[in-house]
Amino acid sequence: MIEPSLALYGEAYAKVDQHLEELLEQTGVRYCLLVDRKGFVLSHKEALWAPRPPALDSVATLVASNAAATAALANMLGERTFSEQTHQGDNGTLYVESVGDHALLTLIFDSSVALGKVKVYTRKSIEKVVVILDEIAEMPQPELGDDFSKGAVSLLDDLLG
Amino acid sequence: MSTINFAAREINCKIVYYGPGMCGKTTNLKHVFGRVPEHLRGEMVSLATEDERTLFFDFLPLDLGSVQGFKTRFHLYTVPGQVFYNASRKLILRGVDGIVFVADSAPNRLRANAESMRNLRENLAEHGIDVRDVPIVLQVNKRDLPDALPTEMIRAVLDPKKELTLYEASAAQGVGVFETLKAASRLVLEKLSQNR
Protein backbone atom coordinates (compact mmCIF):
# COMPACT_ATOMS: atom_id res chain seq x y z
CA MET A 1 0.00 0.00 0.00
CA ILE A 2 1.65 3.15 -1.16
CA GLU A 3 -0.20 6.37 -0.84
CA PRO A 4 1.42 9.46 -2.26
CA SER A 5 -0.65 12.54 -1.73
CA LEU A 6 -1.45 14.07 -5.05
CA ALA A 7 -2.63 17.55 -5.78
CA LEU A 8 -3.84 18.34 -9.28
CA TYR A 9 -5.02 21.20 -11.36
CA GLY A 10 -8.70 21.57 -11.67
CA GLU A 11 -11.87 23.34 -10.91
CA ALA A 12 -12.24 21.59 -7.59
CA TYR A 13 -8.95 22.95 -6.36
CA ALA A 14 -9.72 26.45 -7.51
CA LYS A 15 -12.93 26.24 -5.50
CA VAL A 16 -11.10 25.18 -2.35
CA ASP A 17 -8.66 28.01 -2.89
CA GLN A 18 -11.52 30.43 -3.12
CA HIS A 19 -13.15 29.15 0.06
CA LEU A 20 -9.90 29.64 1.92
CA GLU A 21 -9.55 33.15 0.53
CA GLU A 22 -13.07 34.00 1.66
CA LEU A 23 -12.41 32.56 5.10
CA LEU A 24 -9.30 34.72 5.35
CA GLU A 25 -11.28 37.85 4.49
CA GLN A 26 -14.23 37.08 6.75
CA THR A 27 -12.19 36.30 9.84
CA GLY A 28 -9.12 38.51 9.53
CA VAL A 29 -6.67 35.72 10.34
CA ARG A 30 -3.07 35.86 9.16
CA TYR A 31 -2.57 32.46 7.61
CA CYS A 32 -4.85 29.68 6.60
CA LEU A 33 -3.53 26.23 5.61
CA LEU A 34 -5.18 23.08 4.42
CA VAL A 35 -2.93 20.21 5.47
CA ASP A 36 -3.44 16.52 4.91
CA ARG A 37 -3.10 14.07 7.80
CA LYS A 38 0.33 13.01 6.62
CA GLY A 39 1.65 16.54 7.03
CA PHE A 40 1.68 17.72 3.43
CA VAL A 41 0.41 21.21 2.61
CA LEU A 42 -2.52 20.96 0.20
CA SER A 43 -3.23 24.65 -0.06
CA HIS A 44 -2.41 27.80 1.80
CA LYS A 45 -3.43 31.43 1.87
CA GLU A 46 -1.94 34.34 3.71
CA ALA A 47 -3.35 37.80 4.35
CA LEU A 48 -1.69 40.52 2.29
CA TRP A 49 -0.95 42.57 5.38
CA ALA A 50 0.54 39.69 7.35
CA PRO A 51 4.30 39.31 7.79
CA ARG A 52 6.09 36.44 6.08
CA PRO A 53 4.83 33.17 7.53
CA PRO A 54 7.14 30.69 9.27
CA ALA A 55 8.25 27.65 7.21
CA LEU A 56 4.92 26.19 6.16
CA ASP A 57 6.26 22.68 5.67
CA SER A 58 7.34 22.66 9.28
CA VAL A 59 4.02 24.07 10.45
CA ALA A 60 2.12 21.45 8.46
CA THR A 61 4.22 18.57 9.78
CA LEU A 62 3.89 19.69 13.37
CA VAL A 63 0.15 20.30 13.07
CA ALA A 64 -0.39 16.87 11.52
CA SER A 65 1.79 15.12 14.11
CA ASN A 66 0.04 16.97 16.86
CA ALA A 67 -3.33 15.93 15.49
CA ALA A 68 -2.13 12.32 15.21
CA ALA A 69 -0.92 12.37 18.80
CA THR A 70 -4.19 13.90 20.02
CA ALA A 71 -6.19 11.36 18.05
CA ALA A 72 -4.25 8.54 19.74
CA LEU A 73 -5.08 10.20 23.05
CA ALA A 74 -8.73 10.44 22.03
CA ASN A 75 -8.79 6.71 21.32
CA MET A 76 -7.44 5.97 24.77
CA LEU A 77 -10.27 8.03 26.20
CA GLY A 78 -12.87 6.21 24.16
CA GLU A 79 -13.42 8.97 21.61
CA ARG A 80 -13.04 8.36 17.90
CA THR A 81 -11.04 11.54 17.53
CA PHE A 82 -10.87 15.11 18.77
CA SER A 83 -12.03 17.21 15.86
CA GLU A 84 -10.80 20.56 17.08
CA GLN A 85 -7.72 21.96 18.78
CA THR A 86 -6.96 25.45 19.97
CA HIS A 87 -3.54 26.56 21.13
CA GLN A 88 -3.46 30.01 22.65
CA GLY A 89 -0.34 31.98 23.42
CA ASP A 90 0.21 35.48 24.74
CA ASN A 91 -0.08 37.10 21.34
CA GLY A 92 -1.66 34.66 19.00
CA THR A 93 -3.71 31.56 18.43
CA LEU A 94 -3.35 28.40 16.41
CA TYR A 95 -6.68 26.85 15.63
CA VAL A 96 -6.97 23.43 13.96
CA GLU A 97 -10.16 21.78 12.87
CA SER A 98 -10.63 18.45 11.08
CA VAL A 99 -11.85 18.49 7.49
CA GLY A 100 -13.28 15.02 7.07
CA ASP A 101 -10.92 12.13 7.72
CA HIS A 102 -8.06 13.22 5.52
CA ALA A 103 -7.32 16.86 6.08
CA LEU A 104 -6.91 19.55 8.70
CA LEU A 105 -7.71 23.23 8.39
CA THR A 106 -5.24 25.36 10.27
CA LEU A 107 -5.70 29.04 11.06
CA ILE A 108 -3.10 31.26 12.64
CA PHE A 109 -4.12 34.65 13.98
CA ASP A 110 -3.20 37.33 16.50
CA SER A 111 -5.06 38.50 19.57
CA SER A 112 -7.06 41.13 17.69
CA VAL A 113 -9.20 38.38 16.19
CA ALA A 114 -11.95 36.77 18.25
CA LEU A 115 -11.69 32.97 18.45
CA GLY A 116 -15.48 32.58 18.51
CA LYS A 117 -15.86 34.39 15.24
CA VAL A 118 -13.12 32.30 13.65
CA LYS A 119 -14.81 29.10 14.80
CA VAL A 120 -18.17 30.08 13.33
CA TYR A 121 -16.78 30.94 9.90
CA THR A 122 -14.36 28.01 9.87
CA ARG A 123 -17.13 25.49 10.44
CA LYS A 124 -19.07 26.99 7.55
CA SER A 125 -16.08 26.79 5.23
CA ILE A 126 -15.30 23.25 6.28
CA GLU A 127 -18.76 22.09 5.28
CA LYS A 128 -18.06 23.30 1.75
CA VAL A 129 -14.48 22.06 1.57
CA VAL A 130 -15.36 18.56 2.78
CA VAL A 131 -17.70 18.13 -0.16
CA ILE A 132 -14.98 19.11 -2.62
CA LEU A 133 -12.35 16.87 -1.03
CA ASP A 134 -14.75 13.94 -1.22
CA GLU A 135 -15.23 14.60 -4.92
CA ILE A 136 -11.48 14.71 -5.46
CA ALA A 137 -11.00 11.40 -3.68
CA GLU A 138 -13.16 9.79 -6.33
CA MET A 139 -11.29 11.28 -9.26
CA PRO A 140 -9.08 8.81 -11.12
CA GLN A 141 -5.39 8.91 -10.23
CA PRO A 142 -3.18 10.10 -13.06
CA GLU A 143 -1.04 7.53 -14.83
CA LEU A 144 2.65 7.79 -14.13
CA GLY A 145 4.58 5.77 -16.63
CA ASP A 146 8.19 4.65 -16.95
CA ASP A 147 9.11 8.06 -18.30
CA PHE A 148 8.15 9.58 -15.00
CA SER A 149 10.28 7.16 -13.10
CA LYS A 150 13.26 7.72 -15.41
CA GLY A 151 12.96 11.50 -15.19
CA ALA A 152 12.64 11.41 -11.44
CA VAL A 153 15.60 9.10 -11.01
CA SER A 154 17.82 11.38 -13.09
CA LEU A 155 16.79 14.31 -10.90
CA LEU A 156 17.64 12.14 -7.94
CA ASP A 157 21.12 11.63 -9.39
CA ASP A 158 21.51 15.39 -9.66
CA LEU A 159 20.39 15.91 -6.09
CA LEU A 160 22.29 13.14 -4.35
CA GLY A 161 25.23 12.73 -6.71
CA MET B 1 10.06 27.04 0.69
CA SER B 2 8.31 27.81 -2.52
CA THR B 3 4.63 28.50 -2.35
CA ILE B 4 2.50 25.43 -2.60
CA ASN B 5 -1.11 25.42 -3.58
CA PHE B 6 -3.64 23.42 -5.41
CA ALA B 7 -2.59 24.86 -8.74
CA ALA B 8 0.72 23.02 -8.42
CA ARG B 9 0.67 19.41 -9.53
CA GLU B 10 2.52 17.75 -6.72
CA ILE B 11 3.62 14.34 -5.71
CA ASN B 12 4.71 13.95 -2.12
CA CYS B 13 6.43 10.87 -0.79
CA LYS B 14 7.20 10.00 2.79
CA ILE B 15 10.38 8.16 3.74
CA VAL B 16 10.89 7.06 7.34
CA TYR B 17 14.21 6.18 8.98
CA TYR B 18 13.60 3.35 11.43
CA GLY B 19 15.90 1.48 13.79
CA PRO B 20 16.92 0.92 17.41
CA GLY B 21 17.88 3.73 19.78
CA MET B 22 21.16 5.53 19.04
CA CYS B 23 21.72 3.70 15.73
CA GLY B 24 22.20 6.95 13.78
CA LYS B 25 18.85 7.87 12.21
CA THR B 26 19.09 11.53 13.14
CA THR B 27 22.74 11.60 12.10
CA ASN B 28 21.69 10.38 8.64
CA LEU B 29 19.19 13.22 8.32
CA LYS B 30 21.62 15.82 9.63
CA HIS B 31 24.16 14.78 7.03
CA VAL B 32 21.61 15.06 4.24
CA PHE B 33 20.51 18.45 5.56
CA GLY B 34 24.09 19.66 5.63
CA ARG B 35 24.95 18.55 2.13
CA VAL B 36 21.87 19.29 0.02
CA PRO B 37 21.81 22.79 -1.56
CA GLU B 38 19.64 25.22 0.35
CA HIS B 39 17.12 25.86 -2.40
CA LEU B 40 16.25 22.17 -2.60
CA ARG B 41 15.54 21.57 1.04
CA GLY B 42 13.32 23.07 3.71
CA GLU B 43 14.02 23.54 7.36
CA MET B 44 14.88 20.56 9.50
CA VAL B 45 12.56 20.13 12.46
CA SER B 46 13.84 18.14 15.44
CA LEU B 47 11.71 17.33 18.44
CA ALA B 48 14.41 16.11 20.77
CA THR B 49 15.21 16.03 24.46
CA GLU B 50 17.97 18.19 25.94
CA ASP B 51 20.55 15.48 25.40
CA GLU B 52 19.52 15.35 21.74
CA ARG B 53 17.67 12.06 21.86
CA THR B 54 14.76 12.15 19.42
CA LEU B 55 11.53 12.47 21.36
CA PHE B 56 8.92 12.49 18.61
CA PHE B 57 10.54 12.82 15.19
CA ASP B 58 12.96 14.69 12.96
CA PHE B 59 11.63 16.06 9.71
CA LEU B 60 13.33 17.24 6.54
CA PRO B 61 11.59 18.17 3.27
CA LEU B 62 13.57 17.64 0.03
CA ASP B 63 12.63 19.00 -3.38
CA LEU B 64 13.46 16.86 -6.36
CA GLY B 65 12.14 19.27 -8.96
CA SER B 66 9.55 18.83 -11.68
CA VAL B 67 9.09 15.59 -13.54
CA GLN B 68 6.63 15.66 -16.42
CA GLY B 69 4.88 18.59 -14.83
CA PHE B 70 4.70 16.92 -11.43
CA LYS B 71 6.57 18.64 -8.68
CA THR B 72 8.13 15.81 -6.76
CA ARG B 73 9.09 16.08 -3.12
CA PHE B 74 10.35 13.76 -0.43
CA HIS B 75 9.60 14.21 3.21
CA LEU B 76 12.17 12.47 5.39
CA TYR B 77 11.28 11.48 8.93
CA THR B 78 13.07 9.65 11.71
CA VAL B 79 11.36 7.87 14.58
CA PRO B 80 12.47 7.82 18.23
CA GLY B 81 14.33 4.52 18.58
CA GLN B 82 13.89 3.94 22.29
CA VAL B 83 11.66 1.00 23.04
CA PHE B 84 9.19 2.86 25.26
CA TYR B 85 8.32 5.46 22.62
CA ASN B 86 6.33 3.05 20.51
CA ALA B 87 3.10 5.07 20.56
CA SER B 88 4.71 8.00 18.79
CA ARG B 89 6.79 5.73 16.56
CA LYS B 90 3.60 4.17 15.27
CA LEU B 91 2.10 7.58 14.43
CA ILE B 92 5.05 8.51 12.25
CA LEU B 93 4.68 5.36 10.15
CA ARG B 94 1.27 6.49 9.02
CA GLY B 95 1.15 6.85 5.25
CA VAL B 96 4.77 5.81 4.78
CA ASP B 97 5.97 5.25 1.20
CA GLY B 98 9.46 3.94 1.88
CA ILE B 99 11.60 2.90 4.85
CA VAL B 100 15.30 3.03 5.61
CA PHE B 101 16.10 0.59 8.39
CA VAL B 102 19.27 1.72 10.14
CA ALA B 103 21.03 -1.10 12.00
CA ASP B 104 23.76 -0.62 14.57
CA SER B 105 27.02 -2.54 14.06
CA ALA B 106 27.96 -2.62 17.75
CA PRO B 107 28.04 -6.18 19.14
CA ASN B 108 25.83 -5.30 22.12
CA ARG B 109 23.13 -3.82 19.84
CA LEU B 110 22.48 -6.91 17.75
CA ARG B 111 19.46 -7.87 19.82
CA ALA B 112 18.19 -4.27 19.76
CA ASN B 113 18.36 -4.36 15.95
CA ALA B 114 16.30 -7.52 15.86
CA GLU B 115 13.73 -6.14 18.29
CA SER B 116 13.38 -2.94 16.32
CA MET B 117 12.83 -4.87 13.08
CA ARG B 118 10.15 -6.95 14.74
CA ASN B 119 8.57 -3.79 16.11
CA LEU B 120 8.57 -2.31 12.60
CA ARG B 121 6.71 -5.31 11.23
CA GLU B 122 4.17 -5.17 14.05
CA ASN B 123 3.56 -1.46 13.63
CA LEU B 124 3.18 -1.73 9.86
CA ALA B 125 0.74 -4.58 10.35
CA GLU B 126 -1.32 -2.39 12.66
CA HIS B 127 -1.58 0.16 9.86
CA GLY B 128 -2.71 -2.64 7.58
CA ILE B 129 0.51 -2.60 5.57
CA ASP B 130 2.31 -5.78 4.55
CA VAL B 131 6.08 -5.47 5.00
CA ARG B 132 6.57 -6.76 1.46
CA ASP B 133 4.50 -3.91 0.03
CA VAL B 134 6.72 -1.11 1.33
CA PRO B 135 10.12 -0.51 -0.19
CA ILE B 136 12.69 -1.06 2.59
CA VAL B 137 16.43 -0.47 2.39
CA LEU B 138 18.76 -1.84 5.05
CA GLN B 139 21.62 0.38 6.20
CA VAL B 140 24.25 -1.23 8.41
CA ASN B 141 25.64 1.80 10.18
CA LYS B 142 28.71 2.49 12.35
CA ARG B 143 31.04 0.40 10.21
CA ASP B 144 33.86 2.52 11.65
CA LEU B 145 33.51 0.95 15.12
CA PRO B 146 36.64 -1.07 15.96
CA ASP B 147 34.54 -4.01 17.18
CA ALA B 148 31.84 -3.79 14.50
CA LEU B 149 30.14 -7.11 13.80
CA PRO B 150 30.49 -8.57 10.31
CA THR B 151 27.77 -7.16 8.00
CA GLU B 152 26.64 -10.64 7.04
CA MET B 153 26.02 -11.54 10.67
CA ILE B 154 23.75 -8.50 11.11
CA ARG B 155 22.00 -9.28 7.88
CA ALA B 156 21.43 -12.89 8.93
CA VAL B 157 19.48 -11.59 11.92
CA LEU B 158 17.49 -8.83 10.21
CA ASP B 159 17.05 -10.12 6.71
CA PRO B 160 17.77 -13.87 6.67
CA LYS B 161 16.32 -14.34 3.18
CA LYS B 162 18.49 -11.53 1.80
CA GLU B 163 15.51 -9.74 0.29
CA LEU B 164 16.56 -6.20 1.14
CA THR B 165 19.13 -4.00 -0.54
CA LEU B 166 21.93 -3.46 1.92
CA TYR B 167 24.28 -0.51 2.31
CA GLU B 168 27.16 -0.15 4.72
CA ALA B 169 27.54 3.26 6.28
CA SER B 170 29.30 5.44 8.80
CA ALA B 171 26.73 8.18 9.07
CA ALA B 172 28.85 10.33 11.40
CA GLN B 173 31.41 10.64 8.58
CA GLY B 174 28.69 10.78 5.93
CA VAL B 175 29.79 7.49 4.35
CA GLY B 176 26.92 5.64 2.68
CA VAL B 177 24.25 8.16 3.68
CA PHE B 178 23.38 9.43 0.20
CA GLU B 179 23.68 5.97 -1.35
CA THR B 180 21.09 4.66 1.09
CA LEU B 181 18.69 7.55 0.58
CA LYS B 182 19.05 7.29 -3.17
CA ALA B 183 18.28 3.59 -3.16
CA ALA B 184 15.20 4.12 -1.01
CA SER B 185 13.95 7.05 -3.10
CA ARG B 186 14.48 5.09 -6.29
CA LEU B 187 12.41 2.20 -4.99
CA VAL B 188 9.63 4.60 -3.99
CA LEU B 189 9.63 6.24 -7.43
CA GLU B 190 9.56 2.89 -9.21
CA LYS B 191 6.69 1.76 -7.06
CA LEU B 192 4.85 4.98 -7.91
CA SER B 193 5.02 4.44 -11.63
CA GLN B 194 4.15 0.75 -11.37
CA ASN B 195 1.05 1.27 -9.30
CA ARG B 196 -0.48 3.99 -11.38
Automatic annotation (TrEMBL), chain A:
Residues 16-109 form the Roadblock/LAMTOR2 domain. Transmembrane segments: none annotated. InterPro entries: LAMTOR2-like (IPR037587), Roadblock/LAMTOR2_dom (IPR004942). SMART domains: Robl_LC7. SUPFAM superfamilies: Roadblock/LC7 domain. One of its GO terms (biological process) is positive regulation of TOR signaling. It holds the Pfam family Robl_LC7. It comes from the Bacteria. One of its GO terms (molecular function) is guanyl-nucleotide exchange factor activity. This is Roadblock/LC7 domain-containing protein. It comes from Deinococcus cavernae.
UniProtKB/TrEMBL annotation, chain B:
Keywords: GTP-binding, Nucleotide-binding. The keyword Signal does not apply. GO terms for molecular function: GTP binding; GTPase activity. It holds the Pfam family Arf. It comes from the Bacteria. This is Gliding-motility protein MglA. It comes from Deinococcus cavernae.
